[in-house]
Amino acid sequence: MFRQTTKQNRSQNTVIYLLYASIIVTILSGIFINLNSRNLSNNGRAIAQTYEILVNIEKINSIIREAESGQRGFLLTGNPAYLDPYNQARNTIDAALRNLDKMISNNDTQKKRVARLKTNVKYKMNELNEVILVRNTKGFEATLEAVASDKGKNFSDIISSILAEIEDTEKQLLEQRNQTAIQNAEYSGIIQILSVTFSLAISFVAIFTILNERAKRIESFAKIDQQTKDLVMDLGAEQQIDKQNEEAVLRNLIQCLENAKNFIQQIGDGNYDVEMKGITPQNAHLNTRNLAGELINMRNKMREVAEKEKQRNWATEGLAKFSDILRQHNNSEIKELAEAILSNLIKYIGAVQGGLYILEENPHRIAQLELVACYAFERKKYKKQFIEIGEGLIGQTFLERQTVFMTDLPPNYAHIVSGLGTTQPHCLLIVPLVINQEAYGVLEILSYQVLQPYQIDFVERLTESITSTIVSARGNARTKYLLVELQRQTEQLRAQEEEMRQNAEELQATQDEMQRRQNALEQLKANLEKEINQRTQELKTIADRYELMANTIPQGFWEAKVPQDLNFNRETEFWWNDKVYQILGYTQEEFPNKMSSWSDRIHPEDKSKVFSAFMAHLKDQTGKTPYEVTYRLRMKDGNYHTFYTKGTTLRAEDGTPIKVGGVIGKVENVT
Question: What is the DSSP-derived secondary structure letter of residue 451?
Fold first, then answer.
């Protein structure tokens, strides 16, 4: 009897140990799958970083093109206003290079290439600046000689070559990381299959041992049932079984293990929405610390990781896709570029309607937002081609430079017509097109489905590249126009030079005739003086014409000496040129050269913003804080108008401000 009892105890212990082993193997498998999922996530982040590097490379290319475009516009016209793209490029290129260097910090070969890239970009920007100085100091002809040296082209070729090397390497790394992700997924599936097979084998051995027991092992099966609940799965009171029924206990254990196995297989196949059979809302609280609970937690974490990975891949692939689109249409007309951007973006994010508004370039009237592209089933909403700054949601978004996202649209804001009838969208996204704190337009998107935060973030990131490309395309168009205008003016100058040469030849002939006809000297002298005066007047007329062209800049100039203690007061001396009096409508007596003339006429709501920006600019001894502000100013007619002021400061070697000056003009005159 004692031997039989000992044998039963040993059999019971063997079964329990086998169950423990099965549970441990299953848990270890889950841990391995979780770790492998983390590896997949890390590899996914590396892939996303590679896509970001490729986008950043295109951004650097775009910045250099903007710098060259701005320089060309200035070289052709001599107008400093055309240097804005060049100045913006100088302000942003260093940040873009630092960002690229930071992203490839773990690759020595790429870091060396970025170091070479930084050096050559520095040389390129210096070369652009040197040619600009030549244009300022020596004139157009000397500029042509400097450009003809091909020095700038050589730097551009070197930069393009380095960027191509970096891009090729990143694409190779992208391919390797994709292969690694596939291998990790395969390993995860193999481990799942092996673990489930091993667990089932152990379970079947335990079951076989139990079925071969002759005596009733009520206590043992009761313990097995309890451990099944504690370690595997607890079905709750509504699914209680008879603990004295060995078959029911074993069937319950097998079913629980079968449920866990099927659950693991579904997760291994990538089905993260699968529910574990047997777990209900009523017994879920009983299964938080056992195998079922751990597997459900693992599924939830893997589903979260997979969803984030899916969103990250969607965004990075989208940025790469639109980078190609922007590159292909970089030299296209603005409307063609806008239509390509909008139609592809609406389709990519699953929206149904949208519009792209660009700030109109027309110095002869108040600035407006022009609808340059629209995408919709029905376009009644887009009949209005121009929107005033500050008008409606679109105009206000442009003014405030802040994204607007709404899921509760105003009545009749927009309707979408399809074959099923007319419906109103449920989601509105309006994103300003801003670069270097300067707004150039607005992107409007409407959708049936509410856009998710990762989709909104993608659109906001994409608008930076869109804005940069639009600015570059607009600069190219302006350069083409200036080139045609320059050619026309050159032909006029050549015709005038030919006329002057003929006049000079006639004058020489007249002088020779005077030598031969001494007796008619006085008469000829009078005729010659008259002709010379006429030619002098013609030359003066030409000179006045060029001076008039130089004075067509719409902004006025201002200057002030900075007090040593930076304590400006109402009597602090300020100077304005005649253009300022012309714009404001005041006389010099009504608007004397002191600070109160200007500060007393600033709108009370704007004073804090204007002076905060002014003092922040002066106090930053590094000179990196710009002074650029838009505000309302009372003119002679008593009305407030929106003005734009931009300033720069002359500083001592230690950064102490000495003088500050800049431009002021109505917003509709700013170009």
Answer: P
Residue carrying structure tokens 């009372």: 634
CA–CA gap between residue 308 and residue 314 (Å, rounded) = 10
What average pLDDT does this structure show over 196-202? 62
The strand pair at 556-561 and 574-576 is best described as antiparallel
DSSP per-residue codes, 325-337: HHHHTTTS-HHHH
- Helix (H/G/I), strand (E/B), else coil: 185: helix
In this model, does residue 34 exceed pLDDT 70?
A: no
- Alpha carbon distance 390, 506 (integer Å): 63
From CA 16, how far away is CA 207, in angstroms rounded?
A: 11
Measured CA distances, 81 to 13, 447, 555 (Å): 89, 40, 10
Of 90, 94, 63, 80, nearest in space to 133 by CA:
80
CA 649 – CA 644 distance, rounded (Å):
17
Classify residue 223 by burial, with Cβ atoms within 10 Å: 0-12, 13-18, 19+.
middle
Q: What is the pLDDT of residue 240?
A: 67
The more confident residue out of 41 and 409 is 409
Which residue shows structure tokens 């993608």? 458
Question: In angstroms, rounded to a whole number, what is the distance separating the alpha carbons of residues 210 and 15?
Answer: 7
Phi first, then psi: give them for residue 593, nearest 5 degrees: -80, 70
Integer-rounded Cα radius of gyration of the chain: 39
- Mean pLDDT is lowest, of 20-24, 555-559, 591-595, for 20-24
Q: DSSP character for 410?
A: P
pLDDT for the residue 4 = 45
The Cα 477–Cα 505 span in angstroms is: 42
Q: How far is CA 518 from CA 504, 505, 515, in A?
A: 21, 20, 6
Mean pLDDT of 51-61: 79
Copy the structure tokens of residue 632. Answer: 């309302």
> In this prediction, what percent of the chain has a pLDDT beyond 70?
77
**Sequence-separated (6 or more) residues with CB below 8 Å from residue 328:** 340
Instruction: Give 420's pLDDT tier (boundaries 50, 70, 90).
Output: very low
Q: Which of 435, 577, 603 is nearest to 84 (CA)?
A: 435
Place of tokens 């951004």: 59
How far is Cα 37 from Cα 501, in angstroms, rounded to an integer? 83
Alpha-helical regions (H) of 551-589: 578-584
Two structure tokens written together for 512: 């020779």
CA angle 551, 552, 556 (to 5 degrees): 75
What pLDDT sits at residue 169?
Answer: 86
Average confidence (pLDDT) over 627-655: 92
CA geometry: angle at 115 spanning 111 and 117, to 5°?
Answer: 110
Query: Helix, strand or coil for residue 212?
Result: coil
- Residue 324: HSE in the Cβ half-sphere, 13 Å Cα cutoff: 7
The model's confidence at residue 411, banded by pLDDT at 50, 70 and 90, is: low
- How many whole angstroms separate alpha carbon 578 and alpha carbon 61? 42
Least confident of 26-40, 133-147, 316-330, 648-662: 26-40
What are the percentages of helix, strand and coil residues in the chain, rounded to 5?
Answer: 65, 15, 20
